[in-house]
Description:
Layout: H1 2-18, H2 21-31, H3 33-41, E1 51-55, H4 60-67, E2 78-79, H5 82-90, E3 96-100, H6 104-109, E4 117-120, H7 125-148, H8 172-203, H9 205-210, H10 216-246, H11 255-279, H12 283-300, H13 312-317, H14 322-334, H15 340-369
Parallel strand pairs: 1-2, 1-3
Antiparallel strand pairs: 3-4
Amino acid sequence: MRTANIIQLGVKELRGLIRDPMLLVLIIYSFTLSIYTASKAMPETLNMAAIAVVDEDQSPVSSRIITAFNPPYFSIPRLITQREMDTRMDSGLDTFALDIPPDFQRDLLARRSPTIQLNIDATRMSQAFSGGGYIQSIVTSEVSEFLKRYRAAATVPVDLTLRARFNPTLNKSWFGAINNVITAITMLSIILTGAALIREREHGTIEHLLVMPVTPFEIMASKIWSMGLVVLVASCLSLVFIVEGLLAVPIRGSIVLFMVGAALQLFATTCMGIFLATMAGTMPQFGLLLILILLPLQALSGGVTPRESMPEIIQTIMLAAPNTHFTIMAQAILFRGAGLDVIWPQLLVLIVIGGALFILALRRFRRFLK
């Protein structure tokens, strides 16, 4: 009867989820549009940055500088006057405004070290940070070639051969797409299980369950498998149709092996969601707890910043978090095509952490029902 109760209660949870349009929209958005947009913007590369040029010199060298700015890093430069420069910057029309002073070429040939003014709209932080370096490099290169009167590649005594493994084209959207699937799995599993428990408490159906011949273990297990199944299916469809299909990101390893690891991750995070829901009395309180828990988990798990660049004490503390091991495992499978012989330590740790969280959440859940 215990197994039958768990299955029937889980089916009830799935029916309740279908009747909740907001959660359905959140699931669909998290595994489709969110992954697509984040991968295209990841990691904030310079793309078609708006640039305007005030050419007060009208010389061959100024023309060389202007024509050096081309897509995809910059849009075609717009020639403006000095009066228009501040107005366009204030209106947000230009991210960069380059002012080439009068007699620039004459002073350059006379070795007087003339100065070019570059105005940057620093409110566009991602483009402003990298764009300034790009522009400086372009201007320096064009001026140097003009003075030497020929184009020549710099010669170095050592020939460095680059080999980019796993991502030979250095396509940054590949990393963004897969990393956002990993993030969505952790986030949705905690939200769905916690929301399912709080929804029953707010609607008063938790009291109905208490008078039925079911145990807290059965109630908790039903929420874990039902909500975990929803996230697991959604993540699998997202990998196949959004990541591999729409974004054309190659998956190196076995999706089946990744799903096994994801199932263990979902076991741990759904237990975490139930534990947080028992500590929060209402949905707003649950949302505040999610902010305190999810942000450190996502930022320090190694998905955004490599763990090796973090302080050693942070690395040690985050070993207790399930998504740290899940991120290591998922990146090894999906990026590098690792097999079971490589990722078995992460699978074992996820089983241990998931079991500990299940026991902790079950004890808290029993107190919650009293």
